[in-house]
Predict the 3D structure of the following.
Amino acid sequence: MLMMVLWPLLAYTVVVILMVAIIIGLSYILGERHEDKATHEVFESGIIATGSSRIRFPAHFYLVAMFFVIFDLETAFIVSWAVAFRELGWVGYTAILVFIIELAVVLFYIWKMGALDFGPSGKKILEAYHKITRKKE
């Protein structure tokens, strides 16, 4: 009984493995084999690579990426709620309202925490300026 149910899966698995083996074999047989000057060079959009790709980015770039992923995911939730708006009724409306309020609170929190500040604030610049001018006097 179990074999009657699983035989299509087994047949599909065998066919996929055979096709992958055939494709890899054909690409090996028909593929080009040459060693030019730039064969092992990095090639991206026709631009010749200069320097190392191992550069350090400030942590703010990673914060922006995390915030984007977080708020982008919430956008997907809100859009899916909007699609099913009529079926969800007032319960769904209340749930999404609480969700949006929670998003606003989190956004306000990270804004007040300073996670969205990418440069020195005016107060810090003035404090540094006053320290420099006091030392000169």
User: Anything to note?
Assistant: Helices lie at 2-30, 59-83, 85-113, 122-136. Residues 14 and 53 are 41 Å apart (CA to CA). DSSP finds four helices and two strands in the chain.
